[in-house]
């Protein structure tokens, strides 16, 4: 689904009008993709509708989608940022909501070539393996006890990701408490990011925060920021010699936080990032 604010006077694609738009807005649900599919049968592979004052287009044709994401990627690269998304992304400093341009290209380069490169993933393999083993041991202790597999799988995945992010900066009981708190905050933030918000569809009402989304997300991100600040501060106190020693000792375990902090210390303008960008890339 694409949003546009263009004042272009060219004829637009066919689409819903009047009461149908009100119905889509009022009864927006997690199953909107089904509603969009039904509307595509009526209006064709590309059609428009309004969500509040935002003109949206839905494209269901594989060939059109291919043309957009491959041939015209730079035109459609910018994403409409919701109120919750702006707060969660540290004011659009992450990959998802950062406006297309030099800043986005810098983040994309760091994300793809530094954080998710083959060498980086290989270096953090042991960190992920440890978390999977812990998860399996946890399941083993629950023999003859009903378990919710999706919750266990989500927990193991999240623990593995967080281990890749900050490695062994925190350990023991403190790590368990922080991981539990962080997991809860991430789950709540995901819920808010997917929650329909009147402020997104009618910006003139955003100042009133009618549904309390902005306030709740701000509270969540304040706590997230405190956790990350704590970890960055603790990592900064560790000497470079101790870090190298730990890396060699633990079989080449290099976490994302260390990579990003090293990049922030470089004088290379092309990859220059600050603490805000580090936080956004970690949480994004």
UniProtKB/TrEMBL annotation:
It comes from the Eukaryota. GO terms for molecular function: heme binding; iron ion binding; monooxygenase activity; oxidoreductase activity, acting on paired donors, with incorporation or reduction of molecular oxygen. Gene3D superfamilies: Cytochrome P450. InterPro entries: Cyt_P450, Cyt_P450_sf. It holds the Pfam family p450. PANTHER family: FLAVONOID 3',5'-HYDROXYLASE-LIKE ISOFORM X1, OS08G0547900 PROTEIN. This is Xanthotoxin 5-hydroxylase CYP82C4. It comes from Sesamum latifolium. The lineage of its organism: Eukaryota, Viridiplantae, Streptophyta, Embryophyta, Tracheophyta.
